[in-house]
Amino acid sequence: MQQEANPAPSARTHHDEARPNTMGAREDLIGGLRKYDLWGRLGWLEIKRRYRRTIMGPFWTCVSLMIFVIVIGSVGSGLLSKQTAEYLPFLVAGMIVWVTLQNTLIESVNVFVAGTGLIRQMNFEYSILVYSLVWRNFIVFAHNLLVYLLIFLIFSPEKLGFANLLAVPGLIVLAVNCAWLSLLLGMVSLRFRDLQQLVMSIVQVSMFVTPLFWPPEGLEGLRRIFFVGLNPLYHLLTIVRDPLLGGKLPPINSCIAVTVITILGWALTYALFAKFRKRIPYWL
To answer: In 63, 73, 178, 251, which residue has its Cα 20 to 30 A from 118's Cα atom?
Structure first.
């Protein structure tokens, strides 16, 4: 009797593991967010994996960013007739935000493909993969803050203070938008793999048409409306960059634009996630 009773629990466990993932979109998003210990751990382990057996680890991103800012800043200050002490802080404040946004967009197209093993073997919230992606890119942002602090301490120490903490609300809003962008692009690119190349091309071009290397006041008329006013990446960038540039509040039109982007973006993403969530394992 003892020998016959033992297989039953293992049989039930196997049945539970083989059961299809039928949780809803709301349950997935909220349940995944609550498991911060899991997606936090996954994000940190991915950072460690990328820089395994390196001496400086993730601080290599700081070195790369520092070289980029110094070289481009030296050229850009001459082309735009700006003082280096004025242009470098403007450039580095934008670049640390842009790198976070850029990496999130590029990595999001593979967020579910990279998690193929977990999706096929476990019954869990798919949103955990998205939260992990956003978290690890904000870990990189925290490292890049060292470059920001160094440039400002050298060129604009008077602009550093508690007022710069006004960037924290902007960072939270940026993270919320990075989450729906990652989830949306992850689903669509999983179904249509050509989207990966399209996203990379758009991000590369957007880097030059978004007021990142040049101030938004440099454009007028229709060009300003199109490349500044109607550019969602600019508004996501400026709600964090402006407070970092001496603690000033971002423009009210950018705050309104980001609010609209957040609401519409999550509404669209939630609708698609609720409809196609069950198909994610079949698209892998």
So the answer is: 178
Closest CA to 229 of 243, 217, 242: 217
Per DSSP, the three-state class of 110 is coil
Q: 259-282: per-residue pLDDT in tens?
A: 999 999 999 999 999 999 999 988
CB distance 126 to 190 below 8 Å: no
Tokens of 186: 């992850």
Query: How far from chain centre, in Å, is Cα 121?
Result: 27
The answer to whether the beta carbons of residues 39 and 128 sit under 8 Å apart is: yes
- Over 90: is that where the pLDDT of 284 sits? no
149-167 pLDDT, tens per residue? 999 999 989 888 888 999 9
Q: For residue 272, what are its two tokens?
A: 């698609």
pTM, two decimal places: 0.87
- Answer whether residue 116 shows pLDDT above 90: no
CB 105 within 8 A of CB 199: yes
Domain boundaries, the chain: 26-283
Cα-Cα-Cα-Cα dihedral sign, residues 243, 247, 249, 251:
negative
Q: In the chain, where does DSSP find H-type helix?
A: 2-5, 7-18, 25-34, 36-50, 60-79, 84-108, 116-121, 127-155, 167-191, 195-209, 221-224, 232-244, 252-276, 280-283
How far apart CA 241 and CA 250 sit, in angstroms, is: 8
